[in-house]
Amino acid sequence: MQLDVDSVILAIGQQPDLDFISDSDGIELTRGGTIKIDPETLATTAPGVYAGGDAAFGPRILIEAVANGKNAARSIDTFLSGESSAPSMRVTIEKIPIDDYKMPSAYEKLTRKSPDTIDVGRRTGITEVETIFDEAEAIKQAERCLSCHIDTIYDPEICVLCGRCADVCPEKCLHFVPIDEVDMPEDQKKIALDSYGIDAESDQLTVLLKDDTACIRCGLCAQRCPTEAMTMERFNFVETVE
């Protein structure tokens, strides 16, 4: 069923139970009934006490609470050691041999299944209402993942414009088009041409456009490419604290 609405308000009818906090603790609350914190460090108004998750931000998703835990741990380390431990992100890129790259069969056709829920009559207090998947269903649902940390990388230096990648793409997200048909500012177009030493006046130019929102990481473009101008590469993000 679909309803036309002007806005959607999240109203789950639950709130953190903070009765254990007393005035002597020095922990202030907000008007919304959550713990008052510094959004950067997650420090409360009581020195050495930190908070996150729903108790500090209100209803949010689980992964945000996990991130709050990591941020709070860094702040606690800084508080105890007196030394800042600002995190840094390091990115490594790994080229995947195309013979080793394979997605699960028919993964793009799998539909999302919501977990079953327990009967209304059995729901009490804050009991979980969703049941869990069995192992087989959990694996099946995990196969829906589009592996967004893996992407197709295009090397125009060795591309022969054969068009095989665009022909084989099941989602039609690759297109070879004349550069004159590309809607982009002239100054940006000139920078792109100059970087390759191309004379726009004398050369017939073609560009490859990719719609990343439609790509399903099937790898067929890389398999079909005769010069390995299209490859599958894995981006690994490693967070370190110095």
Number of discrete helical segments: 6
The helical percent reads: 10-25%
CATH topology of the largest domain: Alpha-Beta Plaits
Task: Supply the number of structural domains.
Answer: 3
Structural class: alpha+beta
Beta content: 15-25%
Search tags:
6 helices; 3 domains; 21% helix; alpha+beta; three-stranded antiparallel sheet; 242 residues; Alpha-Beta Plaits; two-stranded antiparallel ribbon
Care to give the gist of this entry?
The protein is of the alpha+beta class.
Description:
- The protein is of the alpha+beta class and 242 residues long.
- It has 3 domains: 23-85, no CATH class; 104-142, no CATH class; 150-241, Alpha-Beta Plaits (2-Layer Sandwich).
- Helix content is 21%, strand content 15%.
- It contains 6 helices and 5 strands; from the N terminus they run ααβαβαβαβαβ.
- Strands 1-5-2 form a 3-stranded antiparallel beta sheet.
- The protein is extended and about 75 Å long.
- The two termini are 52 Å apart.
- The mean pLDDT is 88.
List the helices and strands and how they pair.
Blueprint: H1 54-57, H2 62-81, E1 87-96, H3 135-142, E2 150-154, H4 164-168, E3 174-178, H5 186-195, E4 206-210, H6 220-224, E5 230-241
